[in-house]
Amino acid sequence: MNAGSVFPDNIQKALRNNPPGEWIPEIPKDCIRLHCGYPAPALVPDEEVKAAVKSLLEEEHDLPLLYIGSPKILKLKEQIITRLKERGISVAEEELLITSGASQAIDLIARILLDEEAIVAIESPTYMEALEIFQNYTSHIISIPVDKQGLQTDVLEEILKERKQKGLTLPRLLYTIPTFQNPTGTTMTEERRQHVLMLADRYNFLIVEDDAYGELSFNKRLAMLKEMDQSSRVLHVGSLSKIVAPGMRIGWMAGTSQIIHACAWFKKDLNHPFAQAAMSVYLTKTDFNKKLVTLRDTYRSKCAVLISALEKYLPESASWYVPEGGYFVWMKVPGADTSKMLTQSLAEGVSYIPGKYFFMDQADGTEFLRLSFSYAGEKEITEGIRRLGRVVGAYL
Amino acid sequence: MNAGSVFPDNIQKALRNNPPGEWIPEIPKDCIRLHCGYPAPALVPDEEVKAAVKSLLEEEHDLPLLYIGSPKILKLKEQIITRLKERGISVAEEELLITSGASQAIDLIARILLDEEAIVAIESPTYMEALEIFQNYTSHIISIPVDKQGLQTDVLEEILKERKQKGLTLPRLLYTIPTFQNPTGTTMTEERRQHVLMLADRYNFLIVEDDAYGELSFNKRLAMLKEMDQSSRVLHVGSLSKIVAPGMRIGWMAGTSQIIHACAWFKKDLNHPFAQAAMSVYLTKTDFNKKLVTLRDTYRSKCAVLISALEKYLPESASWYVPEGGYFVWMKVPGADTSKMLTQSLAEGVSYIPGKYFFMDQADGTEFLRLSFSYAGEKEITEGIRRLGRVVGAYL
């Protein structure tokens, strides 16, 4: 029996975008890892998580290992609501859903809002997991370019205006990472934030604000879209992956109770009591504001090391955005094919992610690559960029 | 803005089945809990999980707290494959997907195989979470009755034959819990197992075998459908929820590499490295065959206590199946409305789940209720059934 024949059309289509095993090459073990969006190993609180689990299980025994029962599940929700409030977003208990990372939140939003006819607007480039998720639901995806001031809202407005004039369907959803964007590291200006909210009202779409990196500002912070949102159009997605540990899989979304109820209904992996309760205890025992200072100081410093190495080792034709927070630097190597160049780069012992993976039309990413300063140590970063400079120099 | 208007039709339909907050009443704290399908608290290995997390984090530090990196993620997969092999099922690495419990596995299978036109056959009654999941994808659900020998495969055959004769669409999927079924506790006979596999071949459908309770046999064990499957029609779903701890959320599915690849592609919550690695260490440190003996002895004994209390305290008109494993006893109270009766039962201090929640057409469940012997202690079970006997006696 050919099981392929039992897949419905939309599933067959989604799978065609994804032949098994097609991905960036394996990274050699001794390679300097500038590709991965992992937190710095020294900032991952393994000792603290161990202590949290010990204290949790000694206090509650079987409760956090059952389906429900641990009061810490609700506590975690309260802790996240409190933190959002400190940051300027007020949500009630029924307006927040804990998810397994931001990616599950995005998937649930797509699940309840998109069908095959729906149109989604995304940033170009954007988070590759989100790109995969949206393509699983619809093939009608509109890419809006990002520049150093974030999403180009004037381009978005032009497209919306034109579609309206022509009587074409308008997007149901805009997905944006306004702050320290993945992969470009750029931040949407306040003016553009106001503009995009105005457009959402005028053209009647919802905005998914992916704020996975929002806490990691090196200097000043801007108001989040959800803070500025007057008409309940923003679904705010957050995560502890970048500021505590991705392996715990704790993320969330905040939106209207109607949207949250719908997402909760379609979330069929149930709660994750053990991970959630352990995270709650960890947060209770942690001075989070102090931790954030350490995180920001560390990543600010690592970013500065990367930028100064780029200035020193990269040929003049290469260019990049200087981020004000987050994990990433986006680089352009004019005339290069960064996918092919990766082979030499890995041979030299430094990794990155080729730009093509962040675009709907992969050809748009040929000259770009994403560097991450989050994971590697400062000396490694400098040495990695020195090697990359050699690769780029030889390649141009 | 009315966000409801942005839900596509199929989502609106699924949500109409589920008005917010409609569920069984809150269970008072001092109530004897015969409703919940939780493992016995004394069998939940909180000490061992604490030790596993300690040992894991001392050995691997940040690795299990990152996205990938811990070798224990792969190890867990190997451990599950090894256990399946001991039980008679051979699967390769690419034929197994670790999921967040059996429920996520069922949801992913529905996601890749069902569209709104698809027909699913289910047991009646069946696992309520599975019922909810299938209704999220299609409204074409065919209920096949279960008796004390499990799924009535002759009824299934009649329906298939008739649909074929009339030129109607045939089911794409049959969902069954052949062993120690939820909620009836019944087990499909070997003869019926062979019959259903033959029907799958003849009428070209896939079988989802939910084996969440399969390890918990009180006496002899039967071959699983996946063991008997000659034509790759069985997707085997399993879980550590009932034999280790549900709060860790470790389940799996085994099927063709094509199906597993598709499910993995649509699984967008990523791996759960911390929970998976901790579970792997727990399994390494545990003599699982010994643990299974304890589990089976405990539940066999608790089941016997429940059955003997039923014989002692329930009026003659009530009837039930005597299970040979698992967690549940299914009871019929002729003429009763078990939903209404629950109010009195909770007032008397004993809980159960009204039968209606396990049926597509809830009216079919009016006279039934599910009792669980897994969670409450033996004395509590006896006292709970004494109280239930009073409630049923007064109600009839």
Provide a short characterization of the protein structure:
The structure is a homodimer of 396-residue chains. The first copy, chain A, has 13 helices and 14 strands.
What's the structural blueprint in terms of helices and strands?
The structure is a homodimer of 396-residue chains.
Chain A (H helix, E strand, L loop, with lengths): L8 H8 L15 E2 L12 H15 L10 H16 L9 E4 L1 H13 L6 E5 L3 H8 L5 E7 L2 E2 L1 H13 L7 E4 L13 H14 L2 E5 L14 H4 L5 E6 L11 E4 L2 H10 L6 H13 L2 H26 L5 E2 L7 E5 L5 H11 L1 E2 L1 E2 L13 E5 L5 H18 L1
Parallel strand pairs in A: 1-12, 3-4, 3-6, 6-7, 7-8
Antiparallel strand pairs in A: 2-9, 4-5, 8-9, 10-11, 11-14, 13-14
Helix pairs in contact in A: 2-10, 3-10, 4-5, 4-9, 6-7, 11-13, 12-13
Please explain how this structure is put together.
The structure is a homodimer of 396-residue chains. With 396 residues, chain A is of the alpha/beta class. The first copy, chain A, folds into two domains: 25-44 and 290-395, Aspartate Aminotransferase, domain 1; 46-285, Type I PLP-dependent aspartate aminotransferase-like (Major domain) (Aspartate Aminotransferase, domain 2), CATH 3.40.640. Helices cover 43% and strands 14% of the residues of chain A. Chain A is built from 13 helices and 14 strands. Chain A has helices spanning 9-16, 46-60, 71-86, 101-113, 128-135, 153-165, 190-203, 225-228, 257-266, 273-285, 288-313, 338-348, 378-395; strands spanning 32-33, 96-99, 120-124, 141-147, 150-151, 173-176, 206-210, 234-239, 251-254, 319-320, 328-332, 350-351, 353-354, 368-372. Chain A is globular. The mean pLDDT of chain A is 95. At the A-B interface, helix 1, helix 2, helix 4, helix 5 and helix 9 of A face helix 1, helix 2, helix 4, helix 5 and helix 9 of B.
